[in-house]
Write a structure and sequence with these properties.
280 residues, 12 strands, alpha+beta, three-stranded antiparallel β-sheet, seven-stranded mixed β-sheet, single chain, 7 helices
Length: 280
């Protein structure tokens, strides 16, 4: 009986050992019970990539230039059409100095607007001189004689001068003396009237400007040149009339002489009248 029991025990031990071996092999198997996860990689693309242009591209640069562009444009347009190629960092270190990385040239290949040449401005002075030379002294004198009136009137504000008070004296007229006879009549001394002074004189320049304004009625008379030096004020007999060399300083009537070279002088009258002061 002892010999029959041993095989049964050995077979059971072998089966148990096989069971144990199977369980351990399953536990140790990495296929079913162990999972190794790697680190997550950044899936974002770089914002720009460095490329070398294989042809001239308008708005980017010339052929051979290395410029940064968007990766989507390079991947979808330039690389499939063989307009550019990628450049690695190793290739950048071996490039020539003239082909180093540069910025995009936005104005490359774009025509710049050209301004039309402006014609040189015409000089009005030369035109005025040419037109003036067409008027002879005789014609100038005829125009002044025909268009300038005989009297030129100017208005100025007079300077108010208080009247002097008379000193007390014997009454003027007949008087009876103590004897009873008639005394001789004593007359008041006669005063010579003086010119009324004005605010702001009338100069020969003012007279010339007034004549020029009158001559602007047509194109021919507007070309008459009359400088103030060609106007002379006649010297009055009375020194206290209000004439001071080339200007009038008092109210009254004055004679002037307009001289045109090569012709006879033209005489006109200048009247300075009183203008009421503006009271405001």
């Amino acid at each position: 009986m002892t010999s029959l029991a041993k095989p049964a025990i050995s077979s059971q031990c072998l089966g148990y050992l096989r069971y144990l071996a199977g369980v351990q092999s399953i536990k140790l198997s990495p296929t079913f019970h162990q999972q190794i996860r790697g680190k997550k990689k950044n899936a974002k693309e770089p914002h720009i990539v460095n490329v070398r242009l294989l042809e001239d591209i308008r708005g980017y640069g010339r052929k051979g230039s290395i410029i940064p562009i968007a990766p989507g444009r390079m991947r979808n347009i330039y690389y499939p059409q063989r307009k550019a190629e990628y450049v690695t960092q190793a290739q950048l270190r071996t490039t020539n100095q003239k082909d180093l990385l540069t910025e995009r040239d936005f104005s490359y290949g774009i025509p710049q607007p050209q301004s039309e040449p402006q014609p040189p401005p015409e000089r009005a002075e030369k035109t005025f001189e040419v037109q003036t030379k067409l008027l002879t002294p005789k014609r100038t004198c005829e125009i002044i004689e025909a268009q300038v009136p005989s009297e030129l009137i100017f208005y100025r504000v007079p300077i108010a001068v208080p009247e002097p008070e008379l000193a007390p004296s014997e009454p003027v007229g007949t008087s009876i003396n103590a004897v009873g006879g008639d005394a001789p009549v004593r007359k008041a001394p006669e005063s010579v009237p003086s010119a009324t002074r004005i605010y702001g004189s009338v100069s020969v320049a003012d007279i010339a400007e007034s004549i020029k304004a009158i001559l602007t009625t047509n194109e021919e008379s507007a070309r008459v040149v009359l400088p103030p030096e060609d106007i002379k004020i006649d010297e009055p007999e009375n020194e206290d009339v209000g004439v001071d060399a080339d200007r009038l300083k008092a109210l009254g009537n004055y004679q002037i002489e307009i001289r045109v070279k090569g012709t006879e002088s033209i005489r006109r009258r200048v009247i300075v009248k009183a203008q009421e002061a503006d009271i405001s």
